[in-house]
Amino acid sequence: MAVRSGIRDCRKQKTTDEIIPRNKRLRAFYDKKREEGKLYKVAVIACVNKLLHWIYAILKNRTTFQDIA
């Protein structure tokens, strides 16, 4: 659910048509996997693995999360 929420698009304002992803790095990774020809579920599982690696690195290094937007 965390990955599906992260790759989902959201509108910046409801009055504009500008659509931005909730997590740009995760969405870019997802789009890369889909362009490689991976199925939806396979790409989502790859994103889950990537997210787990990010979480492990944060915990291992005892750093705070900094979203690079």
Could you characterize what this model shows?
This protein is mainly alpha-helical. It is flat. Strand 1 (9-11) and strand 2 form a beta hairpin. It has one domain (2-61). The protein has helices spanning 2-7, 24-35, 40-61, and strands spanning 9-11, 19-21. The chain has 3 helices and 2 strands; from the N terminus they run αββαα. The chain has a two-stranded antiparallel sheet.
For the largest beta-sheet, the strand count, sense and barrel status come to:
2 strands, antiparallel
Beta-strand content bin: 5-15%
Cα shape: flat
Q: How many distinct helices?
A: 3
List the helices and strands and how they pair.
Blueprint: H1 2-7, E1 9-11, E2 19-21, H2 24-35, H3 40-61
Antiparallel strand pairs: 1-2
Helix pairs in contact: 2-3
Short description:
By secondary structure, the chain is mainly α.
Question: Which labels suit this protein?
Answer:
69 residues, mainly alpha, two-stranded antiparallel ribbon, 3 helices, 9% strand
